[in-house]
Design a protein that fits this description.
heterodimer; A: 250 residues; alpha+beta; 18% strand; B: 952 residues; alpha/beta; seven-stranded mixed beta sheet; six-stranded mixed beta sheet; 38 strands
Chain lengths: 250, 952
């Protein structure tokens, strides 16, 4: 069993806007592209051109149909990756100390040299955010692109996770969620960001911004379901509004 | 007791080496042409290998972001389906049995076939390119060759949208224009799944979301952009036009119309002659009755007709007037108001048909009204119009619209796109702040485009460009007996305004010898044996049909980079490179990548050299052109251009105007200038692209803005200012109607006259999609959507993308599934008047209640794309194409029309009507019909992949 560090001063994580995510999978592929050549073993693919292709991904997009009480079903696109929990059960369950949470910034990582591939951490994670690599036999997970965010070989603007850099709807944000003045903290406050499955007691660092109400809001308060004008007759003959408008131009 | 380990943190290198070099080029994982940074690393021998690809932050199209397709480019570049060398067919067509030959043998063979055709009868070559991004070049080759039979894929993509936009307002959606993302306050998006244009729309939506701007998605299916729209209008397919005309009814009823805009910038005041039965009925009354004269309007000061061009005349928009010759005439707007205020366009009259409640239609009209007129965008930016009037402000109506293929791919799509533009223009929201803005070199009206040309003679080039915009029946490409000159019957009475041709009809027409037989079919980058054709099984039969002596299409040459289905049906394969190994120009002469505030073009260049015996298709075409001694391709007996890169730099289309606009002449020239030998280097230094900003005063009101017109001339878009007004009423359509009544020298046969009279209405109309003629036995609609993470058939060879979209269930609305007794995972027969497929289903509550849908082009033929025979794309994947006939059912007179829009010839994919029945799972476990098997000329892909820097 492995111990968590003291509560980090800095809690790096992602804020994911479910109101804006179109489910395009850009983040998942950019993640795979960067990380297969990055931290640790490559993200392998089995039977990639065959009957049952599968592979290791650190971030996957799930699409759910949600049927509200009124109105048509909605499609919610939900990107899923490690939430870098404060009380990370994947760390405490690790028998070798391979799974650990960084004291400095709270990023949860796997030391692949110490990982024996037992899979206990994936079983302990309530979010299904860890994947055993089918080729290397070690546990893979989101590193928040630990090899990007402080990488001096990258220009400063690129020192962010690959998924954030690529997101075409800018639905993904990266920063210190322990700093109330950070952009991500302000975004969470403004938009009512939520923990995923708080009842699990994992205290995730990542936050999700819930979808805003659909169908409900007209363009402005004056556009209230067309009731005011429904009874007005269809004009015939010369249009009075047109005469007035033309007169103003004369 | 278990010991608790206190993890000793290993040291993680925060700054590992990233790459050895970054080369900036242009993506080609779909048609959007984003800028990419390609990272390269050196292998053990010092050779640069592609390691990863990310978005170019400086690029105008994608501003650094990149979609799933773009980020998986590495796997396309490494695809096992890449062709390796020229191939000659040795087995029967369709078998996929080939032998590798040398380039010299391949080019010899092509030159022999093509040379014979050119000397004998050039029209016996049909040269069609698919998702070609070099159409200004490929069309130039075809014109020099002399065949009239050239087009690209626009006819089966979005020509309705493009043509309706060009004729109405000199530009359309996507490449022609964009919403004013900064300033718009209400955005409507019609018929767009997740593509076209991919990243710019996503970036735009994110900006709207950040500002809390309302987004209304109109689409039968609620995926992608529609899933995040604030309001989803789950419309019945093919009824968008009716929905929009009901919105127009409401806008007119409320007076939600920008009258000043209509008077100044449109033909709303132009007088239309009302003289039924005469040749001039429905045409504009013109000064002195001259056909080329200025249009007449009613001058409000005098109540009499006066020239619309007289700056002192104030046009009235209603009433009527007697012309000098005694005929009655009325302003266009009077016809608009009369037509759309009619009860037949009232929300209550259309709600059942559209599947949208009258209450919703009325509310959306109210929202449009409120956004446009209660909250105008006013910029303190003076500008001068083409009449010399100075305006101290730019006032805009912040309603914007985007529409694509869901609008286009119906037999009423041209008129539907027209209806959308009419709505935008009535609101005063085109080319005004907050509205819809053109991207240079647009605006460019129909009259500034060429007319189509199709007259050919042996050994001679064609008389002019193939594609263009007819302004009346005199511009059709028909023989004296009225028969089509082109193999696809473009610009004939079947499809008079088919500005992009009808690629979807080429194989069927050639196989039928209607209007004539051809000798050689030459295709580039178009999977016509599979997902790009209607009626796929029948098309495979046509490609293999033998009349005893030979195939009915005797020669088929195909160029593709990958082992697609079409490869197996060709006789000679010219293997293309991947997009990272080639030169290309994303040219202003072609499909540009400009933004409303800037002209832009770009290049592709070989960031790595091919490791196979393949060549960029455009360079091969230059080589063939020289071997055939086509005019413009030789200097003396030597090829004029060494390769496509050389052409990109040295070719001149007009004096000073070439394929690339940047760094011309001495390196300072933008738009115009002599060829600059260093041009490509300058592009590379600048990240692979060039931009030139639209001056601030020229940024809006472009068709009428003197500053814009002058800038456009300096940039070389045209050679003199050409202001014009928007055409609410399209006189060219009235001319076709008059011809259909028998007026004028060029008239259609009786069998075609009726349909032209009905559909060529000069004001937007709605008519039921022709597919509805299937009748009550087919109560459901069936359409495809484009997944954001897949581009047509290309994605299935990509090890990463096929894990996301490896199969495509048929999505069935819950109530339809209930009635048919269908649960998730069941199989069903889907039956259309054309055929039947057996496919796996999945239930959905997020679509129009009468619409089935699936993802486009996931199904694959066994043996194609280097996939194994048991790949889910071949077992459970399927195409709807089998259900869609390229011809409409037989008419009373024994004729069959093509399944296309009657005006533009656009393929009416989404007219499809079906019914569904529960089926037993197929005994083979495979979806039906079985598309057969082809041998793979490239083998099968590897069993495992683990991409790291050591394995590149």
């Amino acid at each position: 069993m492995t111990t968590l560090p003291p509560e980090p001063q800095k809690k790096l994580g992602l804020v994911i806007d479910l109101d804006t995510c179109v489910g395009c999978h850009a983040c998942a592929v950019a993640c795979k592209e960067w990380n297969t050549q990055g931290y640790g073993a490559p993200l392998s693919d089995q039977d990639p051109y065959g009957d049952d292709p599968s592979g290791t991904w650190l971030n996957r997009i799930h699409s759910y149909e949600v049927k509200p009480e009124a109105g048509p079903a909605q499609l919610i696109h939900f990107p899923r990756s490690c939430l870098h929990c404060d009380d990370a059960p994947c760390v405490t369950v690790c028998p070798t100390g391979a799974s650990y949470k960084r004291a400095e910034d709270g990023i949860v990582l796997v030391n692949e040299d110490a990982c024996m591939g037992c899979g206990l951490c994936a079983w302990a994670c309530p979010y299904g955010a860890r994947e055993m690599d089918g080729s290397a036999g070690v546990m893979k997970k989101c590193t928040l692109c630990v090899d990007r965010i402080d990488n001096e070989n990258l220009p400063p603007e690129d020192r962010e996770p690959a998924c954030v850099r690529t997101c075409p709807t800018r639905a993904r944000h990266f920063g210190d969620l322990n700093d109330p003045e950070s952009d991500v903290s302000k975004l969470v406050a403004a938009r009512g960001g939520v923990d995923l499955m708080p009842e699990q007691g994992t205290r995730p660092v990542n936050k999700y911004l819930p979808p805003r109400a659909r169908e409900a809001a007209p363009f402005s308060a004056s556009c209230d379901a067309g009731s005011a004008t429904q009874e007005a007759p269809v004009p015939t003959g010369r249009l009075a509004w047109l005469d007035r408008a033309l007169a103003r131009l004369d | 007791m278990l010991s608790r380990r206190v993890a000793k943190e290993p040291i993680v290198d925060p700054s590992p080496h990233v790459s050895d070099e970054i080369r900036k080029t242009t993506c080609y994982m779909c048609a959007c042409r984003c800028g990419i940074d390609v990272h390269l690393v050196r292998d053990g021998e010092g050779a640069l290998k592609v390691s990863h690809i990310e978005g170019n932050r400086d690029h105008p199209v994608n501003q650094g972001v990149l979609c799933a397709k773009g980020s998986s480019g590495l796997m396309q570049h490494r695809s096992p389906a890449r062709l390796r060398a020229p191939l000659k067919r040795v087995g029967p067509r369709g078998s996929g049995e080939f032998e590798e030959i040398t380039w010299e043998e391949a080019l010899d063979m092509a030159t022999t076939w093509l040379g014979r055709v050119r000397a004998d009868d050039p029209k016996k070559l049909a040269f069609f390119t698919g998702r070609d991004q070099s159409q200004s070049f490929t069309s130039w080759w075809a014109q020099a060759f002399g065949t009239p039979n050239y087009a690209a894929h626009g006819g089966f993509c979005s020509v309705n949208m493009a043509t309706a936009g060009i004729y109405t307002m000199g530009g359309a959606f996507w490449e022609f224009g964009a919403p004013d993302w900064e300033n718009t306050k209400l955005f409507m998006i019609f018929g767009v799944a997740e593509d076209h244009d991919s990243n710019p729309i996503k970036l735009g939506l994110s900006r709207l979301k950040a500002r809390g701007v309302k987004v209304i998605g109109v689409n039968p299916v609620r995926t992608g952009y529609n899933a995040i729209a604030d309001e989803w209008v789950g419309i019945t397919p093919g009824t968008d036009g009716l929905f929009v005309l009901a919105l127009i009814h409401e806008l007119l009823r409320r007076g939600a119309v920008d009258v000043e805009y209509l008077v100044n910038f449109t033909n709303a005041g132009w007088l239309v002659i009302d003289a039924p039965g005469t040749a001039e009925h429905g045409l504009f009354a013109r000064v002195d009755g001259e056909p080329e004269g200025a249009a007449l309007v009613i001058d409000r000061r005098t109540g009499k007709p006066a020239s619309a061009d007289d700056p002192d005349v104030r046009a009235d928009l209603q009433g009527e007037v007697r012309l000098a010759d005694g005929r009655r005439a009325r302003p266009v707007f009077a016809l608009v108001a009369e037509r759309y205020l009619d009860d037949s366009y009232a929300p209550e009259a259309v709600e059942a048909r559209c599947g949208v409640s009258a209450k919703t239609i009325r509310r959306i009209a109210e929202e449009l009204h409120s956004a446009a007129f209660d909250e105008p965008v006013v910029l303190d930016r003076p500008w001068t119009d083409w009449r010399g009037r100075r305006h101290d402000k730019m006032v805009g109506r912040p309603v914007s619209v985007h529409a694509m293929r869901g609008i286009s791919a119906h037999s009423n799509g041209f008129q539907t796109a027209r209806a959308i533009h009419l709505m935008q223009i009535l609101l005063g929201s085109v080319e005004t702040p907050g509205g819809f803005r053109f991207k240079p070199p647009y605006p460019k009206p129909a009259q500034a485009h060429p007319r189509p040309h199709a007259k050919c003679s042996p050994g001679e080039p064609l008389s002019g460009p193939h594609l263009g915009f007819p302004l009346g029946p005199e511009h059709l490409c028909i023989n004296d007996d009225g028969s089509p000159r082109r193999i696809d019957k473009a610009f004939s009475w079947d499809a008079p305004l088919s500005a992009h041709g009808l690629m979807h009809m080429v194989i069927a027409n050639a196989a039928a010898g209607d209007p004539y037989k051809i000798d050689t079919l030459f295709l580039y980058m178009a999977n016509m044996a599979w997902n790009s054709s209607m009626n796929t099984s029948a098309v495979m039969e046509m490609l293999t049909r033998n009349d005893g002596d030979d195939y009915v299409i005797p020669h088929i040459i195909y160029s593709d980079a990958y082992s697609s289905e079409m490869v197996a049906f060709a006789d000679l394969i010219l293997p293309d490179t991947t997009y990272l190994e080639r030169h290309d120009c994303i040219s202003l002469l072609d499909r540009p990548i400009c933004e409303p505030d800037m002209a832009a073009d770009a290049i592709r260049w070989p960031v790595v050299e091919p490791d196979r015996d393949v060549r960029g298709f455009q360079s091969v075409l230059l080589d063939l052109g020289a071997r055939l001694a086509l005019p413009g391709f030789q200097d003396g007996n030597k090829p004029r251009y060494t390769d496509y890169a050389d052409y990109m730099v040295r070719h001149l289309r007009r004096p000073g105007v070439g394929p690339l606009a940047g760094w011309r002449g001495d390196g300072e020239g933008a738009g115009r200038g002599e060829p600059n030998p260093d041009q490509l280097e300058r592009y590379k230094e600048n990240g692979g692209f060039f931009t030139s900003e639209v001056p601030e005063e020229a940024a809006y009101f472009k068709p009428w803005n003197a500053a814009y017109q002058d800038w456009a001339v300096t940039m070389g878009f045209y050679d003199a200012p050409q202001p014009y007004v928007f055409q609410l009423y399209l006189e060219p359509l009235a001319k076709f109607q008059r011809a259909a009544e028998g007026h004028g020298p060029v008239t259609p046969p009786a069998s075609k006259a009726e349909r032209i009279l009905e559909t060529f209405d000069p004001l937007p109309i709605w008519y039921a999609p022709f597919g509805d003629s299937a009748g009550e036995a087919f109560p459901l609609h069936a359409i495809t959507q484009r997944p954001a993470a897949m581009y047509h058939s290309w994605g299935s060879q990509n090890a990463w993308l096929r894990q996301i979209h490896g199969e495509n269930p048929l999505y069935v609305p819950d109530h339809v599934a209930d009635e048919a007794g269908l649960a998730d995972g069941d199989w069903a027969f889907v039956i259309s008047p054309t055929g039947r497929i057996r496919v796996p289903i999945k239930r959905t509550g997020a679509s129009n209640p009468n619409t089935l849908w699936t993802w486009n082009a996931i199904g694959k033929r066994k043996g194609a794309w280097a996939l194994r025979d048991g790949a889910p794309e071949t077992t459970r994947g399927f195409l709807l194409n089998h259900l869609i006939h390229e011809l409409l059912p037989e008419r009373g007179d024994g004729q069959r029309w093509s399944n296309s829009d009657p005006i533009t010839g656009q393929a009416a994919w989404f007219d499809l009507r079906v019914r569904i029945e529960k089926a037993e799972p197929p005994p083979t476990g495979r979806s039906e019909p079985d598309g057969g098997h082809q041998a793979s000329p490239v083998g099968e892909g590897p069993l495992n992949i683990a991409v790291d820097k050591g394995s590149l």
